[in-house]
Amino acid sequence: MRTLLIKINAARPEKRKMRAVARILRRGGIVVFPTETVYGIGANALNGAACRKIFRVKRRAADNPLIVHVSSLEMARRVCDIPSKYQKVISDIWPAPLTIITKSKSILPKVVTAGLETAAVRMPANRIALELINECGFPIAAPSANISTKPSATSALHALGYFKGKVAAIIDGGNASYGIESTVLDLRTFSILRPGAFTAEEIKKSFGKSPRIASAYKLKANSAPISPGTKYKHYAPSTPLFLYVGRRGKIGSILSNIDDKFAFIGSSASSEKMGKNVIRIDIGSSKKEIARNLFDSLIKLDYTGANFAVVEQQSSEGLGLAIRNRLLKASSNRAFKTAKELKKLILLYSIKD
Ligand code: TXA
Ligand code: MG
Questions:
Q1: The model's pTM
Q2: Looking at ligand 1, which atom is closest to the CA of residue 118?
Q3: pLDDT recorded at residue 352
Q4: Are 33 and 155 found together in one domain?
Q5: Which residue from 33, 36, 67 has its CB within 8 A of the most atoms of ligand 1, so it is best to mutate?
Q6: Which of 120, 235, 273, 328 could cross-link 252 (Cys pair, CB 3.0–4.6 Å)?
Q7: Is 264 exposed, middle or buried (0-12, 13-18, 19+ CB in 10 A)?
Q8: Which residues, given as ranges, of the chain have pLDDT below 70?
């Protein structure tokens, strides 16, 4: 299949181009498009056969449901029930990187909800995405635009690497502004199923109550190393990644003892302290910058020729909660605090996929 790369102006999407992409979706094709969080690989959410293609191309497990993207509250109501007590707050928040889990309606094909009684629905805060959905007149089901287990795409170039020849079109709408996926909030239990770009603090402020957060996300920066070898794999580069959860400021001296070709992914301040032999991937300073650069850093890492990489854990306030979650998964929970622990990880795991 020939993949069209279509550059679209994010501030003023060209009508003609939007119509061409909508036509592909209307005919049951799949396309990659930008959202404010990460790029999505989308199909007509009401067309089961079209949505099945996404699973095939992404190599995604059939029991992992898709997020349905809408451009209006009415469209959301066509696919799910939004409890009346939440209607106002959600209409105030949207468009935003907040996905709600609520009872689904039968109009949604089973492949989208993975047969669950609930659906994941969100209105993206990105003009290209919103106008595309509008132009189509139907919601777009879209997971993040990456091959399953790999880091999510935050640019058209990342998506091209994953899907060239496999999708009809890839829209280039510039780099994703958040760089990290939406927060998934289950409205029935009021709990965060996946921390994301809409912070727990923002949820508390807009809903007037605190969401439950699974304890796994709350780990302190200095907590004990998590046992390695968890079978869950997600966002993972091919280069083995180890997570530093020890005291700030000590990582430089720990790494100075390691005689190997490796990369360090960390804040600008920590990167500066690394020795010349270390491949440095500067991830920025503020949480916002780190979120925006995170997946790009993980994708770049695989081009460096490093035998393994070390990444610093972040504190859990604000966007930090989502960053920590992605780092834990990308490193398959292989965390360390001391040079001794790191050496053990290197011995056990520093063989690429
Ligand atoms: O920011 C985002 O959310 C991006 C952009 C493209 O919108 N999309 C995205 O989709 O990250 P995906 O498929 O990579 O992640 C969706 C998450 C998965 O963890 C999935 O299991 C969960 O949402 N999910 C979907 N439907 C669900 C449901 N009914 N109940 C619980 N979790 C659900
Ligand atoms: Mg994903």
A1: 0.95
A2: 29
A3: 62
A4: yes
A5: 67
A6: 273
A7: buried
A8: 215-232, 351-353
